[in-house]
Amino acid sequence: MISFLYRVKKHKYNDLMRQNENKYQEGAISGSLIAIIGLLIGLLVAGSLAIWAYLNYNEQKTNVDTKVSAAVSEAKREQATVDEDKFAQREKEPNRQFAGPDDYGRLIFDYPKTWSVYVARDVSKGGTYEAYLNPILVPPVSTTQQYSLRVLIEEKDYDQVVKSYEPLVKKGDLRTSATSASGNNGTRLDGSFTKDIRGTAVIYKVRDKTITLRTDADTFKPDFENVIKTINFNQ
């Protein structure tokens, strides 16, 4: 009887141990499964972050490369413009000298060698002296045509010539200021002379005549400023 009870107890003990072992194994399997799932999720998240970071890097790199390329192109264009301007300025040198008729005060000034000169009036018998200067070729004479420089020596009183611009000054189209050349005072006008002509003019009295030098576009203004610095004439 004791032996039988012992075997029963032993059998129950063995069953209990097997149940605990099975539960332990199930718990171990469940823990491993959770760990694997967590690892997979972590890998997926890490992979997604890596892909996002790579795409973002490529986008930023593309933006930076585009900006750098644009900046380089702009710098090249600016340098090309500077080089062209320097070349154009060198081509204008050395300057040539313009000389007007002796009987009209012998007006003298320097102008770029790339400019051509056209004298429109023969003043051997008097009248208004007209000369036109323009780069390479002087277009046909016209009141609406723009020239780099117009030279006018009129048989008119200085005050009369200056006064003829008063309506435009009062209207605000022209601004007037003082100027001088070879010790002689004159008048300077800046602004719009007509709807086609916007530039600068300087006016001087020479003997019984009046000299007017005018540029017809702001494009020629730097050259015009250099020209009027060299003006000389006989009183």
Fold and architecture overview:
- The structure is a single chain.
- The mean pLDDT is 85.
- The protein has two domains: 1-91; 96-228, Protein Transport Mog1p, Chain A (3-Layer(aba) Sandwich), CATH 3.40.1000.
- With 235 residues, it is of the alpha+beta class.
- Strands 3-4-5-9-8-7-6 form a seven-stranded antiparallel sheet.
- 19% of the residues are buried.
- It is rod-shaped, with a radius of gyration of 47 Å.
- It has four helices and nine strands.
Gist of the model:
This protein is of the alpha+beta class and about 240 residues long. The protein has helices at about 1-90, 160-165, 165-170, 220-230; strands spanning about 95-100, 110, 115-120, 130-135, 150-155, 175-180, 185-190, 200-205, 210-215. The strands form two sheets. A seven-stranded antiparallel β-sheet has the order 3-4-5-9-8-7-6. It has a two-stranded antiparallel sheet with strand order 1-2.
